[in-house]
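= Paired protein data =
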Amino acid sequence: MIIDLTKTPEHSAPKQNIEQPDIKNKGQWAKEGFKPKSGEEPFRIKKYRGDGFTGEHHLYTADQMVAIKRKPAPKPAELIDTLAAVFEVTRYAKRCRDAASRCYQSDVHGFAGSWRNRKDEMYRLKGQALHYLLADGRLEHSGYHLFEGKWAELLTGGGYSFHRPCPSQPDVDIQSLPSLADIEAKPKESAEPRLTDAVFTLEQYLSGKKQVQVYEWPVRKKKKAKLRCYHCGYRGHVQRDCPERDDAY
C-alpha cells in the first residue's frame, strides 16, 4: 500500500473553486511527448511511502514542458547500383575485420566473434554477387594480384575494381602484377551509399539465384593460446594453480 504523505488530513488545504494546473510527473509527460524545459525546477514535489520504502514524485505543469524532438523514422532500404553495393559491403567487411582484431587483442572474445560473423556474412554476399556479375558481363577478368602470399583475381567494370580469392597462379609473372592501389577502387565521383541499401540490393540481386561454391583462401592454423589466470593475469596456468594465491603451497 502506498500512502501520499502530502495529503494527510490535518494538513489538507481547504477546497476552493480555483482551476488547478495540469500537473504530472516526468514519466506521464514523456508518454505524451513532452519533457521539462532546461533548468526547470519541479512545480511540486509529492512524497509517498510504501511498505518499507519512501520516494518522491517531481511534478511539472504544462507551462514547464517542451516537446520532445523525435528522431525521424529510418528511411526504408532502397535499391542502388549493384556494383556500388558490392563496394560498400566490402568496405564494411574490412571494418568488421579490424574491429574483430581489436577485440581479440583486448581479450573481448564475445564481441570479436560477433564482428567476425558480420565480416563472414558480408564476404559471402560479395563472393556470390561477384560470381553472377562476372557471368552477366558487368565485370571482367583483368589479371591477378598477390599479397601476403595469397593470390586474388582482379575483376573490373563500371569504374569499379574488386579482387576475389583464387588458387595460386604459377604461370603468372609476379613482377607484372598491379600495385595494391589498383585494387578495390571505385569511380571518383561516386558517393558512398548506406550499408542498409547495399545489403538490400545484393539480397534482391541474389534472390532466386542458386548459391554457388566460390574459392576461399585456406584458413591458417592458429596456435592455441596459453590459458590466462584470472587471479594474476599471466598466461600459462589457471586461477586454482596460481602461485600468487595466498593459499598456494
Summary: The helical segments are 26-31, 82-105, 109-135, 195-206. Residues 7-14 have pLDDT under 50 and may be disordered. The two ends are 57 Å apart (CA to CA).
